[in-house]
Amino acid sequence: MTYVINDRVRVRTAPEKEGRVTGKVRERAGRKRYQVDFGSCQEYVLESNLESVPELLDVYDLLEAGHYGGVVNLRTAIT
């Protein structure tokens, strides 16, 4: 999937990490890495490790989809 500037994304291997695509892309060995702004930092993340996040999600949608990184993240979200 191709992402454009300001797309809201989540890291598949760390679902609690959500951010916005900055528009910068690096390509090496045929693999794209998008720079994502997570608020506190910016990182380049492999395209295959990103997924789009709808603008409006509630806790129930996230639970149903299994998009919590672990018990601590789930506890934080529901309390």
Task: Give a structural overview.
The protein is α+β, with helices and mostly antiparallel strands and 79 residues long. The protein contains 2 helices and 5 strands. A 5-stranded antiparallel sheet has the order 4-3-2-1-5, with no helix packed on it. A hairpin with a 2-residue loop joins strand 2 (14-28) and strand 3. The longest helix is centred in the last third of the chain and has 8 residues, at 71-78. The chain is elongated and about 40 Å long. 11% of the residues are buried. The mean pLDDT is 85.
Tell me the layout of helices and strands.
Layout: E1 8-11, E2 14-28, E3 31-37, E4 42-46, E5 50-52, H1 59-65, H2 71-78
Antiparallel strand pairs: 1-2, 1-5, 2-3, 3-4
Give me the count of strands: 5
For the record, give the distance between the C-alpha atoms at the N and C termini, rounded to a whole number. Answer: 34 Å
Residue-averaged pLDDT: 85
Structural class: alpha+beta
What profile does the largest beta sheet have?
5 strands, antiparallel
Listing every helix as H and every strand as E from the N terminus to the C terminus, the arrangement reads EEEEEHH
Strand order within the widest beta sheet:
4-3-2-1-5
Strand content: 35-45%
Oligomer: single chain
The helix content, as a percent range, equals: 10-25%
Uncertain runs:
none
Radius of gyration: 13 Å
Shape verdict: elongated
Count of alpha and pi helical runs: 2
